[in-house]
Amino acid sequence: MTMVTEKDINEQIAWAKINTDVLKSMENPRPAYWVTLAVCIAMVACAVLAEYIQYTVGMGTANLNNPHMWDMYIAAFVFWIGMSHSGTLLSAILHLIHADWRKPIYRFAEAMTTFSLLTAGIFPMIHLGRVWNLYWVLPYVSDRGIWPNFRSPLVWDAFAITTYLTASMLFLFVGMIPDLAICRDNTTGWRKKLYGILALGWVGSDRQWRHFRKIYLLMACFLIPLAVSVHSIVSADFAMSIMPGWHITSFPPYFVAGALYSGCAAIITLFILLRYFFRFEDYMTLPIMEKTAKLTFAIAMVWTYLNLIEFASVWYGHDVYNKELLIAKATGAYAWIFWTMLFCGSILPFALAFRKLRRHMPTMFVVSLFLNLGMFFERWMIVAPTLSMSQEPHQWDIMYGSIIEWAIVFGSFGWFGMLFLIFVKVFPSVSMYEVKEMVFHRKLSAGEEDLARMTDHAKPVTQTTGGGGA
Amino acid sequence: MMGLFGDFEEAHDAIADIRRNEVPGLTVDDVTMTSPIEHPEVEEVLGERPVHIQKFTLFGAIFGVVFGFIFLAAAQASFLVQPQGGKPVIALPSNFVLVYEMLIFFAVWLTFFSFIFLSGLLKKRSSLYSEKVSLDQVAIIVEIDESIGESVKGLFEKHKVLEIREEAIR
Amino acid sequence: MSLDNILNHWSDYRKGSEEGGHHDYEHRWAMAINLDLCIGCNACSTACYAENNLAVVGKEKFEKGQAMHWMRIERYWDQQELEHPEQGASFLPMMCQQCGAATCEPVCPVAATYHTPDGLNAQVYNRCIGSRYCSNNCPFRVRYFNFYSYYESSWPEPMEQQLNPDISVRDKGVMEKCTFCVQRIRTVKDKAFMEDRPVQDGEVVPACAQACPTSAIVFGDTMDEGSVVSKLWKKHQVERGVYQKTKLAKKDADLRGYRIFEELNVDPSVMYLERVREDI
Question: What ipTM does the predicted assembly reach?
Answer without folding.
Answer: 0.89
